[in-house]
Amino acid sequence: MLNLKNIIHKYQDKFAVNDVSLEVKSGEILAIVGESGSGKTTLLNIISGNIMPENGVLSIDNEVIDIYFNRLIKELPNIKLVPQDYRLKPDYTIYENIDLALTKYTHQYRRERVTELMVLCGISEIKNKKPREVSGGEKQRTAIARAIAEEPLVLLLDEPFSNLDSINRTHLRSKIVEIIRQEEIACILVTHDLLDAFLVADRIAIMQKGKVLMIDTPLNILQEFENQYIKDFVSSAVQPIKDFMEGFGKNMNFDV
Ligand code: ADP
Ligand code: MG
User: What CATH number is associated with residue 202?
Assistant: First the structure.
């Protein structure tokens, strides 16, 4: 289980992440949703060790991680980040891109693990292609396969659905759920699109100006009426669907 307490980070004098505390369990998907500039990427970079926060405690399974050391070594085996631009190696095949994460293991284990990961992520058929020859969804799934190759406890996904068409989005959403449940990873998925969060997350955190305003189940977020910002955010995601359904004479039974 991943636990964050009182994480703070400023750029110059401006808070990017302002006192964030949250928890994610193994096999759980927490979606962090917020508009552009709300601090989502900064928070993921703090958790993955790329940015040193000014304050805060990070622990996994009740063991505190030394954030300073984490930043020095850059690569924490238990926490893997899939950045928004995937960072696949263009001259290597899909198979080789995943295999590169496993160079310290035996050839036989590497072969077995890469094959298993390609099946899990649904990319076996493109194993000999280069990244430029596959779709955005396939690139994203390759980046996820590479990130989970060494069985991390925590997987961080930064805007995994951006740049994907709706078929690839739908496919990726169900794949992510399948992967997280099967591998029992604690997953934080960042998106600016609340609809994607509703469809994939066990819980949703709404972020605004570096602060987490609310963390709850998708259903409870849908029914939040106290906070005007969340209410507006929810209704901007849901209203188009509501309007569409009402066009067919069907009412949706939540009030936005
Ligand atoms: P999000 O991922 O939610 O769009 P970010 O974490 O990228 O948000 O950014 C949060 C805030 O911090 C924004 O106001 C952004 O302009 C600022 N910011 C991000 N990175 C830097 C940086 N390297 N230097 C200065 N300000 C930054
Ligand atoms: Mg971002």
Answer: 3.40.50.300
Residues 6+ apart with CB under 8 A from 240: none
In a domain, 103, yes or no: no
Residue 255 inside a domain? The answer is yes
CA of 116 to the centre of ligand 2 (A): 31
Q: Does the beta carbon of 208 lie inside 6 Å of ligand 1?
A: no
The reply to whether 5 falls in a domain is: yes
Name the pTM for this structure.
0.92
**Domain range for 68:** 1-78+188-256
Ligand 1, pocket-test mutation among 7, 41, 211, most atoms within 8 A of CB: 41
By the 8 A CB rule, do 74 and 49 touch?
yes
DSSP state string for 5-66: EEEEEEETTEEEEEEEEEEE-TT-EEEEE--TTSSHHHHHHHHTTSS--SEEEEEETTEEE-
3-state secondary structure of 105: coil
Q: How many domains does the chain have?
A: 1
Please tell me the number of the ligand nearest to residue 42's CA. Answer: 1
pLDDT, tens digit, 9 for 90 and up, residues 37-49 = 999 999 999 999 8
